[in-house]
From TrEMBL:
Spans annotated as Disordered: 148-173
Phylogenetic placement of the source organism: Bacteria, Bacillati, Actinomycetota, Actinomycetes, Micrococcales
Protein name, entry field: Ribosomal protein L7Ae-like RNA K-turn-binding protein
Listed InterPro entries: Bact_RF_family2
Segments of skewed composition (Basic and acidic residues): 148-161
Amino acid sequence: MASRAGSTGIDASLYRREGQWCTALFDASLGTTAAHEAADELPETVSKILASQQASEADIRAIREALVPARGCPAPVARFVAVNDGEVVVDELIQGLKIQDPDVDCGPFPNLVALARARGGQFPYLVAEASRDGGEVRLYHSSIQEVGERRGVTGDPEEAHHARKVPGRYDEPKNRSATEEIWRRNADELAKQIDELARENYVKLIVLAGDVKARELVVGQLAPASKAITTTLEQNTRTGGADQAAFAAAVAEHVNEVVDRELKELSEKIGNRTGNGRSDLALGFDEVVAALQQAQASTVLVNQFQDDESLVALTSEPWLEGEDSDDHAELVIGSWPAPEVLLRATALTDATIRYVPEGILPEGVGIAALLRWPTGEARPAE
């Protein structure tokens, strides 16, 4: 199964794999006759480009097999595929991205820039729906419509409602207690699934809906860390007449609130550091490169893509250098457009990357980095 890039749009383990890489970004829309015709011609077009870049037969075959349109998805939608030594390791749809011509690339490391720009800043979140006889929890990523993982809890409806079927007996304390115990057991199991998914995926938001009593029971069983990021919707979505469109809109509103809050926090951090002697903030291309060379950057912030710049990629630390430098000649892989090399160095130094809108960085600054330790000080001992 192809792996998903991380919440910053990158996965450092991909850059550590050996062998040749091929990537393809292409229009996956289907909705017009022209789109269908383009999809039919795409495998041959991409194969010719790959062959011209000396891709192996195994890589060409793997890419061709992955050139699948996004059936059922509204246009525009693109698909990004990365192949390593004949194996598809990334295969993702990018909603809302319009692609005119296929972008195909081969090299010693993957070009994940398009994916990072689409995914940078995304975060995982959970949507849980509870009922008295079970429920479901689904893992999503904020810029991806499809479900990442789904887990369900299915109780026994007959068992749960047995007391109701015995006339006059549900109100008896013994039967009522037994029924409520079944509800608590189901809620406890759903809460455990929520806690586990939240912990494993570092989720930033949990949205809980469903039956009122079931919601209360689930919230009561959640771990403190999960409870702190849980929002409850007053919607019983586990009924046949539930308004799913209203439910989806409510979830989207809470997701957007998290995005807005994070951008506000980033803006405040930059503002505070700009006015504090700027020792823990790198501003501009050269300063960000220097910070990445020392693994000093914790978060790289990009407002302008730096497409006109080039950098040299290195096989090991410091991972990159300027084209005019010859300090690490023995480590040189080659020269590439700066966005590719910057992204690789960001991943390999365990930093994150955010592509931010206007107004977050100081005026005239296209790229910046929040630093792990102040410039001029020694690197902290690990």
